[in-house]
Structure formats: C-alpha cells, structure tokens
Amino acid sequence: MFDLICICMITGMIICGMGNGQILRQGIMALSGQEEARSASAASQGDTGETEGEEQGDLIQEQGEKKKVALTFDDGPHPQYTLEMLAALKERNVKATFFLLGEAVEQHPEIVKQMHEDGHTIGNHSYKHEQLSKLSMEQACEQVERTNRLIYDITGVYPSYLRPPFGDWHEKLDCEVNMVEVLWDIDTLDWSSKNHGQIVEKVLKNVQENDIILMHDGYETSVTAAMEIIDTLNKQGYEFVTVDEILFD
Questions:
Q1: How far is CA 72 from CA 27, 75, 213, in A?
Q2: pTM for this one?
Q3: What is the pLDDT of residues 148-177, one digit of tens each?
Q4: CA distances (Å), origin 202, targets 208, 225, 226
C-alpha cells in the first residue's frame, strides 16, 4: 500500500511539475513515519513476525537444554508427610527417588503402592536404619534383602538402588548384594535444622547440574522446602529426574 501511494504521488508530481517536490518528500516522509509507527506498535504487542509454531519450537528447544538434578528422600514412608510430599510432587509433575526403611514399609504399604503408581523410583535404605558396616555380613545382608522383599511384595519390582544408612557401606556387600549404591552431592541436613529457610538456602547456594540432593520426607519443613526448591530451580533452567537418569544417562 505504501509503495502504491508513492507511485501515485510521483505520477502527480510529473503531471503538476517539479515545484511540488518538497510537498512530495513531506508526504513520503509522513507515510514512512506512519509505517514505522505501525511496525513499532506491532513489536510492542509481541508481533515479531514468527508463527506460533516457531515460538513453540523455540520453547521446546529451551526446555531440552534444562540441567538435570535429582531429589531423594530417606527414612520413609511417613504416614502424614510422605503423602503431602507425593501430592505436591504430583501437582508439579516431578518424579523423585525414595529410599525406604523396611520397618516403615511394613507399617504403611498403601503409601509405598501410591509412590510406585505415581512413577517415583523406590530404593532400599535398610530395614532398621542400622550402620551396616558395624553388623555381621549376615545381618547386613538381611537388612537389605528383607527390605527388598517387602517392597517387591507391594510393587512387584525389586529395588535396584541402595542408600546405606549414614552413607556407610559394608566393604564386602558388593559381593553379596547386586544393587547400585547411591550417595549424594548435597546434604540438606533437613532432619537436624527443621528450618525451611536454611534447607532452601543450602541447596540454592550449592546446586550444580547432575547433583543428587539428600532430603527426608518425615518433616513438614522438608515438604515445604522441597517445593520451594523445585519451583525456584525450575525457573533457573533445572529439571528434576530420578537417580537413574543422573547415574546412567
């Protein structure tokens, strides 16, 4: 439209004489200003000329570049706070890894079943949270194997991952237990402080890509802190995965 008007004005100038050149230039400049104003207006309204598909493609590319981090929870299941944790994780579409105590599994099998159905990874944290290196080989193996059987009876899946209590691995268990030992990169010490702010700060100050974060699902402050950690790190370009994606991808 702009080009057409210019052609008409030039034709008019030829017909009427060159004395109208200044008027013509003023007209062209005015029209050019209107065109620039329309372009600026479109830009201010977010019209960049990209199609919706191109914008979605950019978004998908950004999502594909997210950094992975794993949330892990020990000592559960807890009859109240594990359920709260599961509900909050489901709301955010986040999968985590839970290292369960056999004696707690016996007491709350319905929570373990829900955990499995929600798609979380379930690991073994021994039966009674005893320091495995201080037990005999038979006692240590029984702590692990008993918990494995309990989890299998509920979920139909034997755990592949073991987090020994206190991170203390029995040196000979490698030969007896065919499981992957999983420790951690960041220990929130949430069981000790029970302080929402301290837990969040510990993670946000230290987290790096592919870190495994140690928390517990037996405290209300751990639930609220975990949700703030998820929400904040999501905005910083992190995505939350289970430990297998950290260890083997």
A1: 69, 10, 6
A2: 0.74
A3: 999 999 999 999 999 999 999 877 776 677
A4: 12, 11, 12
Angle, helices 196-206 vs 220-235, to 10°: value is: 30
3 state DSSP class of 124: strand
- Dihedrals phi, psi of 124, to nearest 5 degrees: -100, 135
**What distance in Å separates the CA atoms of residue 76 and residue 58, rounded to the nearest whole number?**
40
Closest CA to 230 of 119, 133, 103, 96: 96
Return the structure tokens found at 122. 């379930």
Rounded distance between C-alpha atoms, residue 191 and residue 217, angstroms = 9
* Cα–Cα dist 30/33, whole Å: 5
| Catalytic residue list | 74, 216
Give the confidence band of 178 by pLDDT, cuts at 50, 70, 90: confident
Q: Residue 93, SS3?
A: coil
Over the stretch 196-219, which tens digit does the pLDDT of each residue have? 999 999 999 999 999 999 999 999
Q: Which domains does the chain have, with CATH numbers?
A: 1-32 (no CATH), 67-248 (3.20.20.370)
